[in-house]
Amino acid sequence: MNGRRDIELQRTQARLREQQEALRSQLVATELDLAITFCQVAATTKDAARYERNIANALEAFYAAVYFLNCNHLKSTLDLEIKEKLLRLDFLLESLERASDPALLHAEPSCALRQ
Fold this sequence. Notes:
By secondary structure, this protein is mainly α. The chain has one domain. About 85% of the residues lie in helices and about 0% in strands. It has 5 helices and no strands. It has helices at about 1-45, 50-70, 80-100, 100-105, 110-115. It is elongated and about 70 Å long.
């Protein structure tokens, strides 16, 4: 009977791993959406403080996404949605970098994300 329980345990573990990967991908996609939104808000403001705050928030969301991508065991199989969001965010950050102080866009991630 232990054999049957072992098989069921393996199935449960596999199902939980799949769920974890799906949730991690969803979190990455959400963080990238958030970063894109902050970039769009920064691009439309004329207030320097608001601009800098939104760029910092965009980078924070981007660093969080990268952190969870690095935890992902399926990095080589990133889904199309995440790849498209990464490309869009890269374009937005590059265009904002050209329009402002480049040092701001190369800031370090927060201590919480460096762990």
